[in-house]
Design goal:
Blueprint lengths: L9 H25 L1 H6 L3 H4 L12 H19 L6 H9 L4 H31 L11 H27 L3 H25 L9 H5 L8 H5 L9 H24 L14 H24 L3 H24 L8 H19 L15 E7 L2 H4 L13 H16 L1 H5 L6 E9 L4 E8 L5 H8 L2 H7 L10 E8 L7 E3 L2 H17 L2 H4 L7 E7 L3 E7 L4 H9 L3 H4 L8 E6 L13 H10 L4 E3 L2 H10 L8 E7 L4 E7 L6 H6 L2
């Protein structure tokens, strides 16, 4: 009578090698082509000049990612194939071997077959390191870093596939569910981020979508390893998951019934989780798409229902392994009732999310802007923050007013402004909100904030400039002209900086909301190679007068002398297809051929139009300037109060 088979059994190892050894060989060949072969092919002195590599992940990174994502799952699927086929399962479990020993032998064999190719590649690169002078590109530690990170991700993805294989009876489902589980955290974050703003007024979806959520999915994190170093906390979590998945897979395997083959999911408890999880995700997907595209609560609810039904049917087709499915109405009704209760709770703000407002004494500083991207601007050392009590209190009062006017703002047109607010609290926490509003309804609040000394100092670089330290000022006109004004005289520089500072000091909030295109862009050079940037706005009349007195005006901005003539038309009389695209030349030709166009050659009228035109094509009137010297065209628009009287009079 044969003795009990030990953990290391030669025959089982031979069987494993024959069934999945090819996966390991393909992995080795893929990695060899990606790294060592690439090193050998680019070893010549001439080719080395064009190599920009500082770690091993950058060698054919896309191929490495495909291999690291697919090979571990293939290994798990083909390795535990015996759990999906009844004859194979009966044969394996008829052996005088404990289940625990079978699992260890297969799981560890898979780990070894995954580790060996990576280890061999690392050894080959180490051998090539000195002869091919790879130290010119990266230090030897990068090889061990590549080895460790690659193995960590491979083992985590592999053991995720092993765990799914323990609860599944179909290889196709095992492979698909492995990727779904690995992507599920990020997928849910994205779906919830797009859906929660429909229920939580002020929910900042873009803020959370940009907040390094990729670390929640090994697959997403893996795509960024060539430029993003994994943090210690992230590595620790992945290592804990590796050990947890191994022992959890063993525990589930020991509980699995031998006859549970050829079923999508072999444990009854997992079927409703899969079914309603799929239904919930497709429901959110439907809401995300149609809620963003069409708007309106009616459309949103309709697409939630449609998405949920599609997901429910797909889940039933997978579980029943047929497209002719039987719908279990009881389960669907329970799910519908649960979602209805959740919807009602959100309508009453049961979490008090919308009304939450920190007390002034709890706030360290506050950020307010028109977009999340102004908060996350990488060109800034840090976002704009206000610390003075008066400004913090004013932002709080504005915030409170926005929340109280929630229903009013919801009824506004789609052409809305954004209020993005971040409170940094003294306890280290943040409270972030994002609102779609009509800023004209909150003009008193914005005016006091924007006109405060603290806000102006934080948003205008001219305050950083010491007049006595200024070395040069360049003024580049906004428009298709080849000219520039340069100031280098010390006295002129001092006067210019002082006048520009005065202009910013006296600028009213309304000027910042006028959206008139600046006359020019100013660069102030000061100190030790420092620069300050600012716009020359049409409201800066003192600066314009100073430039004129110093004979610099004609070079500093576009004037009527640069323009041969201009054509003006109502935008509604022009056929501009914004979706398909357009060119200034096409619009100009249409205006030239139209008998509805107003032609302007009067220099005073052209000068007046330059002071009021905006640089967008969404206004009531369009104006096309023709620059004969440059043979160039510039198109702007007028809207509302900015339309000159002589243009209104002409088109009456």
């Amino acid at each position: 009578m044969p003795s009990r088979i030990s953990l290391v059994n030669k025959e089982i190892w031979k069987t494993i090698t024959r069934s999945v050894g090819w996966v390991s060989i393909i992995y080795f060949l893929g990695l060899f082509f990606s790294i060592p072969l690439e090193i050998l092919m680019t070893a010549s002195e001439e080719q080395r000049k064009f190599i920009d590599i500082d770690n091993l992940f950058q060698y054919h990174f896309q191929i490495q990612i495909i291999l690291n994502m697919s090979i571990p799952v293939l290994m798990a699927v083909f390795l535990f194939r015996f759990l999906q086929l009844k004859p194979y399962s009966d044969l394996m479990h008829s052996l005088p071997v404990k289940r625990e020993a079978i699992f260890h032998q297969y799981a560890i064999a898979g780990l070894i077959l995954l580790i060996l190719p990576v280890l061999l590649i690392a050894i080959i690169v180490l051998i090539l390191y000195q002869p091919f002078f790879l130290n010119d590109f990266y230090n030897i530690g990068e090889i061990f870093k590549w080895l460790g990170i690659t193995l960590m991700y491979n083992i985590l993805i592999y053991l995720s596939g092993v765990f799914v294989g323990m609860v599944s009876g179909l290889s196709a489902v095992q492979g698909a569910l492995t990727y779904i589980i690995l992507l599920l955290p990020v997928g849910l974050i994205v779906l919830l981020a797009f859906n929660l703003p429909f229920y939580l007024y002020g929910y900042p979806s873009q803020y959370y979508l940009e907040s390094k959520f990729e670390k929640f999915s090994p697959l997403v994190s893996l795509t960024q390893i060539n430029y993003r170093a994994s943090g210690a906390a992230e590595i620790a979590v992945y290592l804990i998951l590796i050990f947890s998945l191994y022992w959890l897979s063993l525990w589930v395997y020991k509980k699995r019934k031998l006859e549970a083959v050829s079923q999508a999911l072999v444990f009854p408890v997992t079927k409703p989780i899969f079914k309603f999880g799929t239904t919930f995700c497709t429901m959110l997907l439907g809401g995300m798409y149609f809620g963003e595209m069409r708007g309106g609560m009616g459309w949103l609810i309709a697409e939630y229902v449609f998405g949920a039904l599609i997901g429910y049917v797909i889940a039933e087709m997978v579980l029943q392994k047929s497209w002719r499915v039987t719908i279990h109405l009881k389960g669907l009704m329970i799910y519908t009732a649960a979602m209805a209760v959740l919807f009602i709770l959100f309508q009453f703000d049961f979490t008090q999310y919308e009304k939450k407002l920190p007390a002034s004494k709890e706030i360290e500083r506050v950020h307010i802007s028109e977009s999340y991207y102004l908060y996350s601007d990488i060109d800034r050392d840090e976002p704009l923050y206000l610390r003075e009590y008066e400004n913090i209190d004013m932002v709080r009062r504005l915030h409170k007013e926005i929340v109280e006017n929630k229903n009013i703002d919801h009824r506004q047109s789609n052409d809305q402004d954004t209020a993005f607010i971040v409170y940094e609290l003294k306890n280290g926490e943040k409270l972030v909100r994002n609102y779609k509003i009509d800023k004209t309804n909150y003009r008193p609040f914005y005016k006091l904030i924007y006109e405060s000394d603290e806000y102006k100092t934080a948003t205008n670089e001219i305050y950083k400039v010491e007049a006595d330290e200024t070395t040069k000022i360049t003024i580049t006109p906004s428009g298709p002209v080849n000219k520039r004004a340069t100031i280098t005289d010390p006295n002129d520089l001092k006067e210019a900086v002082e006048i520009l500072t005065e202009e910013v000091d006296s600028a009213a909030y309304e000027e910042s909301q006028n959206h008139v295109e600046p006359y020019a862009y100013i660069e102030v050079f000061y100190g030790d190679s420092k620069k300050a940037y600012m716009h020359w706005n049409p409201s800066y009349t003192k600066f314009e007068k100073w430039l004129k007195e110093n004979s610099l005006l004609d070079e500093a901005r576009v004037t009527s002398n640069d323009i041969s003539y201009a054509l003006v038309m109502k935008a509604e009389d022009l056929e501009i297809n914004h979706a398909r695209g357009f060119s200034y030349e096409d619009i100009f030709e249409d205006m030239k051929q139209s008998n509805l166009a107003m032609k302007m050659t009067n220099k005073e009228q052209i000068e007046s139009s330059l002071k009021n035109a905006r640089g967008f094509l969404d206004g009531e009137y369009l104006i096309a300037y023709y620059f004969e010297e440059q043979r160039a065209i510039d198109i702007k628009n007028f809207n509302g109060e900015n339309v000159p009287d002589f243009i209104k009079k002409h088109f009456k």
